[in-house]
Every structure is written in C-alpha cells, then in structure tokens.
Amino acid sequence: MKLKFTFFNLFLGCISFLIFNTKFISHLAAEELQKVDLNAEIKNGKFLIGLEQYLGGENDSFSKKNNINFITDKGLLNLISSNGIKHKSKQINITWVDILIKNPKTIERVVFGPFASYESAKKQADILKEKGFETTVAYPKNWEVWIPFEDNLPDFELKNKIFRKIKNTQITPILKSEYGVLKLEGPIYIYADEAIKINGVNFGKNFYLIQDSYGTWTLVQKIEFADYLAGVLPYEIGLNSPLEALKAQAVIARTWGIFNSNRFNMDKYHLCISTQCQVYKPSNIKNKKVQKAIEATSNLILTYGNQPINAFYHGSNGGVSATSGESWQIQDYSYFNSTIDGSKSLKKIFKLPITSESDLNNFLNFDTEQFYGSNHSLFRWNKKISSSEIKEKLIKNKLININENVLDLKSIQRGPSGRVTKLEIQTNKVNKSIVLVKDDIRRVFNFIPSNLFTINKLSDDLWLLRGGGFGHGVGLSQSGAIEMAKLGFSYEQILNHYYRDAKLKKIEILSQ
Question: Which residues pair with 174 in a beta bridge?
C-alpha cells in the first residue's frame, strides 16, 4: 500500500532535507537537465530501453514496498531531476507516493482494442488518422489506440469504449535519505562511472526514470547498440548457436530495433524487454562467440530502398514462411514472401499457395528432416481443445457471455502459406458466430503455438489442432538459421534466404 503524503508533510520533509543536506544539492534550471531526445540517441548509436514499466502502480512488482534502491560498489552515483535538484551519494533510494492534486483533472478518451500486436494497432491508428482523428498507440496492458473524446463522434465499426477517469492523485518519486525526503520530477537522470546495481541486480551505468502516459513510471536504460545486442542474442537465438547464425541474429536484432524505435514514443523510450519487442537481459559475463558475432557485423543493418527493413523473426516457421499481411492486419512488405523453407528439391514437391485442409495435412505429414529447422521442439505439434476451453477464452476476452456455448470451430480463410487468417467459432446463440482474424487468433487462444494448423473434429465438444512452427512465421526462422549455419551457409546467405532483395548496409553512428 502506497504512503499518503499531504503537501504540508512533503513541504516539511523538503525543508528538513534542504537544511541538513545542502552540500549534496544545488538548483539548476530545468532546461539544463539532459533532455530525452529519442531520435538523437539512435543517431548516436544508443537505445533507450524500458527495463521496468508501470512503476508505482498497482501492478508494480519490481519496486518492493514502492522503493527502488540504486547502489554502486565504487565511486558515486549522480542524480539530476527536472525540477533542478542534483544529488550525489553511494546509494540512492527512491520511493513512490500518491500526492493529492490541488485541481483534479477529468481524463476522457475513446479506446480501440485490445490488439494482439503493435503492428495491428498501428494499422488501425493509421486508418483513423486518415479520417482526421488524432491517434495514439498505447500499451497500458495490451496494445490500444486512443483518440480524444469529443461530443458527436461518429459510430465506429471497430470495437471501442469510452474511458473516463477523474485524476485526483499523482504518483510521485521521492528521494529518501537519512536527512529527509525531497520531491523529484521527471525525467530523472541517474548515472555513474561504474556499474549500478538496481534492487541488487547489476544493470549498467545510465538510467532515466520517466513518467509514462498512464500515470506510472518507467525505469529506462540508455545503452549502446553493441551492449544491447549482447543482452538480446543469448535469449533470442541462444549462446550455443553457430557463429553464422549469431551474426545473422545480430544484424536483424539491430535492424529491428532501429526500425521499431518509435514504438514507445509517447512514453519517451524506444523499446521494452519482453516478447512485445526483443527479449533483453543485462549480462555481466561477456560471451566470446556473441561478442565476435556483434563485432563482425558492427553497425550492419538490412535495408530495402536504402531504408531499414522491419526485420521480423521468430522461433520456427514449421517449414513454410509467411507474408507479413497474413500474420498481422498490416501491409505486405515486398521483402517477405511465402516460401518452402528447405532445399530446392523440396520446393518442387510442394507448390504454394496451400489453400485446403487436405493440402496442409499432406504438408504436415511429409518427412520433416528435409526442412530447415526441423529440430525445433514445436516444428510439429498437436493440441486437443475442448469446447469448454474455447468458451473460457472467449469469455475472458469479452467475446461471448457465460450463457453461450461453443458448437463448432473451423477455418474459413487461409493465407498463401496455409496459415489460418480467419477462424470462425459458432455458438448456440441464433445468427451469431465469432470470427478471429490473423494475430487475434493467437491472442485469444494463446495456447496455440502458431497459425499454421488444421482442425480435426473428434467429437461434439473436442477438436484436434495439428500444426507446425512457433511464432508468426515471418522473416528469419531462428531454428532454420541455426541449421543453415550448420550446413555451411554464411550469415549473408542466411539473410538473403529469409529477406528477399534486402541489402546489407553499414549505418553511420554520429558519436563515433
């Protein structure tokens, strides 16, 4: 439970802190604080990574008892707050408190979603923007699109709701010391010459605390591209991958990060550390093979038309890659194509598109060893799903009510690779069926590894899904890249295989 501070108590605490700790504090104009310029950081070869989101809120599990502790073994920590406060010490403790707002504000907006991915949310935001609406892509818990609430708004075909909230408190960071407390304002810059431990974990040297668009805060790390990739490669493709596969992953992780660096613009950082972005974990131990892959591809990215590509990748494509348009509700990029992921002889056996259940069943039954990446644990999979499980997921996602029952499940549309792009769920409600489209299929039925599956009805309330692959299937298959590297392909050949007509290019880093 957060502490409740009145302005009077806070004022007394600030006076106490200033009286007893003046040697650590000096006021400076807010404009002197290092500003968070997202574009400038990218040009200088740095990402701002949201390490921990929603700090100070109800779902904050990182700040134990609403407290963040920064400490360094050597030297001093430096803190600069936007309200002109400077502080130096061996240890910094910041607590989140709720402070009453003198003049409560009413927040109103129209919320569209949730969407299964940033890509689908961005597509809808662009459609609304073309119609003259001011749009924001947000991620409070799921991807959403916001537009300001106004009277006489038209009826929208897209699912939406009106959000209204009276804001009468503000989650505020407080600098704590033995002498008292002091109110801080964001962005708050915390840095040191040595590595900083945050809540006992060694993260790095440069951090921000930034207020987000939801009233909570984000712990943001400023990190060079190479150090970021050193924390991505081990958790995305694995330390034991062949060197050429690691090189390919380094290029596309760098490319993907740059292309998607505006994903959290509204919250003043580039990327998160979950599967909504790229999985990243700070590492103190340098792996020689990972470092070699990063250095060998230093500042190389994939481009198309002289611009960075949206370098999607995934765990396993099940033997056939997907186009971007069949995986998300977005445009097709010309550098992605649906193709059999294997030798030339295999491509002669199977012709695309795969349009029917029987054709896909034949594909799934074929000797898997002839495909690239067939060693992946989910290259082929079976999932039994009951009507009660389907109903539970639909209720959770507010698509049906508790009195409705599931009668049937069937694919009504497939993409060129055979992936289900429209899944129909029939219920006992007259003239009603639920149709899930593309990435919404796996968002609602999150136990399905991929959209590459056939549906076999076993009884009135039980279905068998036979499928292949893990993930969306667009771009590089990590298991495929690993196998290609073992077969002697270079990283350039691997990238050319998965990203048609994309070109390697060295980017200019201004800080070098």
Answer: 95, 183
